[in-house]
Specification:
Layout lengths: L1 E15 L2 E10 L4 E6 L5 E6 L2 H9 L4 E11 L2 E10 L5 H9 L4 E5 L5 H8 L7 E8 L9 E5 L4 E2 L10 E8 L13 E8 L4 E5 H20 L3 E4 L2 H15 L14 E2 L5 E2 L4 E4 H7 L8 H8 L13 H6 L1 H36 L3 H6 L2 H16 L25 E11 L2 H8 L7 E2 L10 E3 L6 E3 L5 H21 L6 H24 L9 H24 L4 E4 L3 E5 L2 H14 L4 E12 L6 E5 L4 E4 L10 H17 L2 H16 L10 E4 L12 H11 L9 E6 L10 E3 L10 H17 L6 H5 L2 H6 L7
The chain binds a DNA duplex through helix 11, helix 14 and helix 19.
DNA sequence: GCCTGATACATACCG
DNA sequence: ACCGGTATGTATCAGGCG
């Protein structure tokens, strides 16, 4: 027997002579790549026994039910008796559970729609991207590309061991040559594939030199010899892997890149998995970052501070470039640079990725692809085990709306010295304070004594004060962990490894904490309970209103507020009093987060712009921060905002705006700044009304471009008559002389500017009038 | 058949 | 495939109008 320290990278399972075998892939303390086999866990599910004897009798007669045992468990806080039912044929867990759920005396089936690997992780408390001690014996490697293979003798034991793990990483970027529209793997060859390892190997395979077949062979050989733990790319789930597999097939090859010689395969959440390796798609990371509007690799790189060669190349540029040797050269160096950028973005991402994976207990490759709801749910499943809660099946539930947060009416105008007071984790704190949880919720028909429950305002839902609900427990762990990390971070140098990892972890914790309320109100959630979400927002509204009332009572002028924040005229003493009130009387924490030297509010909620102490300008909600306005309109609005905030002179802002606007009128503006991007949210046929971006998308599809739901369509408005949708073109096809510059002035720039200046009594005419008329208004400033 | 205002649809934002 | 609240632009339709 050997005892090993083992870091878990990936987990999968396979059938071996009728048994499920779990494979744990990872690294040892000495940096050896190993795989561990374990058949100890038998497939199972739970059936709640409402009539134990009756149910037991029927269970005996069901084929493939190997054995079962009666256990104590909990469902939504209620103690129940349930049979843990072991199934001999792992493929039949679902169907047998379905059959058992219909038996007399059965009160529902639980833990039945989880993958076997998930049961394994939960039952043995195994942590992806975490260290364990394992007791093993050596076994045959079966040609697996690994240093050692072992058979597990006991379940793994998770240990708090922290050690930086150095992965072997391969980044790649491929370029196919499209014949028409988007490249199609059925007919369009891959002409170049760039690779880069984190150990310094760089190359670009070129179909001109080695043929497409040679290019793919080179790629497979590199994976074979370098044997990476991680293979990273951009857009690999939606495109690259499938493309490579099809082109491999067309060349009589198999894309055997898995450590066990298997090919990439589609797995849960739409992820493409590679056996024994982490297949990462940085697109998923970009998708998670709201500030990145158009999810290109360049934009991700810019966001992360990774430098990109200033060379724009899009798919429609490729065919023409490929015709000349100079163009081909450019394509090759472009691919190489993209590969470098992918590797650098990977380095910025990986600490956070590992921490998130470890926290929510989803393997690293899947956690990136999993939506927030599934991440929260996975974390909750882990917590539920400690409470003895069985895991409900995912079922369709009807949608029933409920009231959310409140937003205060802003005081329009320019204000000076405004402090923003934010509640710290308002919803999680409220959920903890009032023990809001699926297992503490009191059904309407249940009688309770007034002192044993919390009653939500407005909606009247009740929650038991004791014992702790499992949401309270789950949140407490998160908040305590984060507080502890914050304390540690203070004593660490930001450049140290430990700081980097802890900071990544606290970010991961924050994401999960903040998503917990949203999860509770999601109809797809296993632990969905509308009253939970509804009560949380009700207490939230009450809290905010009470805070506003008190602020006004002590003479603080409240300018705005939204959900968990209030904007007040800065007054140190009174703010301190308000903070004290909130902490002592409401039992929550409020903190001045931001101080604006100056801030502009329009009549509209959720839209404002402020000047910070350090001179930066913060814009919220306005056109300037939206992805569906042209850059030129956004740029001019930003400029107007900046001048007003810095000088207080609307006239000066107008003067500048007029200058910029007149450039547009004569066509002195790059086409790039005229693109209006909109997301296609469904297939073009599903739209009830025709819109500009849908029309453009239809045209692109007709021309052979792969465009579907979720894709962004970039349009430019061109001269013509009729509806807007009759006057737009996909941006790729527009020449400067086609552009309808008047549209941009009247429907983009003017509205964006007027939105701001109208606050100060100026109108469209003031923007468009000659300077002479303006002077009549005189030079005045707002402060 | 054209104009106008009301309404529905579509998108993206805030917290 | 986390929530509800909000702003805003464009399409579409009903009704007025000799």
């Amino acid at each position: 027997m050997i005892s090993l320290r083992f870091y878990l990278l990936d987990i999968d399972s396979r059938l071996r002579s009728g048994e499920v075998e779990v494979r744990l892939w990872g690294l040892t303390d000495e940096g050896r790549r190993v795989v561990l086999f374990d058949r100890a866990l038998k497939p199972y599910f739970y059936a709640v026994a409402e009539n134990t004897e009756l149910l037991e009798k029927q269970l005996k007669s069901i084929g493939d039910v190997e054995e079962f045992e009666l256990k104590e468990a909990r469902i939504f806080g209620k103690n129940v008796k349930a049979f843990k039912i072991y199934v001999s044929n792992p493929d039949r867990v679902d169907s047998i559970a379905e059959a058992v759920s219909k038996l007399k005396g059965c009160g529902g089936v639980y833990d039945c729609d989880l993958r076997h690997t998930q049961h394994y992780l939960l039952d043995y408390d195994v942590q992806p991207c975490g260290w364990h001690v394992v007791e093993v014996e050596p076994t045959d490697k079966e040609n697996i590309k690994i240093d050692e293979a072992y058979r597990m003798l006991k379940p793994p034991v998770s240990i708090g061991y922290q050690k930086d793990v150095i992965f072997r990483v391969l980044a790649f970027y491929m370029i196919p040559l499209p014949s028409k529209g988007s490249a199609k793997p059925e007919k369009d060859k891959i002409v170049c594939l760039a690779v880069r390892t984190n150990e310094g190997y760089v190359n670009v395979y070129n179909s001109e030199e080695v043929g497409e077949r040679g290019l793919i062979e080179n790629f497979i050989e590199l994976i074979d010899s370098f044997n990476p733990d991680v293979i990273v790319g951009y857009g690999t789930n939606a495109r690259d892997w499938e493309y490579l597999a099809k082109r491999a097939e067309a060349n009589g090859l198999k894309l055997k890149v898995g450590r066990d010689g298997s090919e990439p395969h589609r797995s849960v959440y739409g992820h493409i998995s590679i056996a024994g390796r982490i297949a990462l798609d940085l697109y998923d990371y970009a998708d998670d970052i709201a500030d990145i509007k158009i999810k290109t690799l360049e934009n991700l790189a810019a966001y992360l501070g990774v430098g990109v060669k200033d060379e724009l190349m899009e798919e429609y540029d490729i065919p023409k470039l490929w015709e000349s040797s100079e163009g081909r050269q450019r394509i090759l160096s472009y691919a190489l640079d993209r590969c470098r950028v992918i590797m650098e973005c990977f380095k910025e991402f990986i600490d956070y990725g590992c921490q998130l994976s470890n926290l929510v207990c989803i393997p690293l490759d899947h956690v990136c692809t999993a939506a927030v709801g599934f991440r929260v749910e996975s974390y909750l499943m882990k917590c539920s085990r400690k409470f003895g809660e069985l895991i409900p099946k995912r079922i369709e539930k009807p949608y029933q709306p409920y009231a959310g947060a409140i937003v205060l009416e802003p005081k329009p105008g320019l204000h000076e010295n405004v402090a923003v007071l934010d509640f710290r984790s308002m919803y999680p704190s409220i959920m903890m304070k009032f023990n809001i949880s699926p297992d503490t919720y009191v059904e309407p028909e249940v009688n309770t004594k007034p002192e044993e429950v919390f009653i939500a305002p407005e909606v009247g839902h009740r929650f038991f004060k004791k014992p702790d609900g499992f949401y309270r427990d789950a949140l407490k762990r998160l908040l305590e962990a984060r507080a502890e990390i914050s304390k540690k971070l203070k004593d660490l140098s930001p450049s140290s490894t430990e700081y980097r990892i802890l900071d990544a972890r606290q970010k991961a914790i924050k994401v999960i904490t903040n998503a917990m309320y949203g999860y509770a109100g999601w109809i797809g959630a296993r632990w969905y309970r509308r009253p939970i979400a509804e009560s949380t927002t009700a207490w939230g509204r009450k809290t905010l209103l009470e805070t506003v009332d008190y602020a006004m009572k002590i003479g603080l002028s409240v300018i705005y507020g939204d959900t968990d924040s209030i904007f007040v005229k800065h007054d140190q003493e009174k703010i301190e009093e308000l903070v004290k009130y909130v902490s002592e009387k409401l039992g929550l924490e409020i903190k001045p987060e931001t101080i604006y030297r100056r801030i502009i509010f329009t009549e509209a909620k959720k839209r404002y712009a402020g000047l910070l102490a350090d001179g930066r300008i913060d814009i919220t909600g306005l056109e300037a921060v939206r992805g569906d306005w042209s850059e030129i309109a956004k740029k001019i609005q930003r400029e107007v905002i900046r001048i007003i905030l810095e000088t207080g002179s609307v006239e000066q802002a107008l003067k500048e705006a007029r200058k910029m606007l007149s450039d547009v009128e004569v066509g002195k503006v790059p086409l790039r700044e005229l693109i209006i991007w909109k997301t296609l949210t469904k297939t073009t046929e599903d739209y009830k009304v025709l819109t500009a971006h849908v029309k453009a998308a239809q045209r692109l599809v007709d021309m052979g471009w792969d465009i579907g739901p979720g894709d962004k369509v970039g349009i430019i408005v061109v001269k013509g008559t009729g509806r807007l949708y009759d006057r737009v073109e996909p941006y790729q096809f527009v020449k400067p002389e086609d552009v309808d510059y008047r549209y941009y002035v009247e429907n983009q720039i003017v509205p964006a500017v007027v939105r701001i200046i109208s606050v100060f009594g100026y109108r469209e005419e003031d923007l468009r009038a000659p300077i002479k008329t303006m002077e009549k208004k005189g030079q005045r400033t707002l402060f």
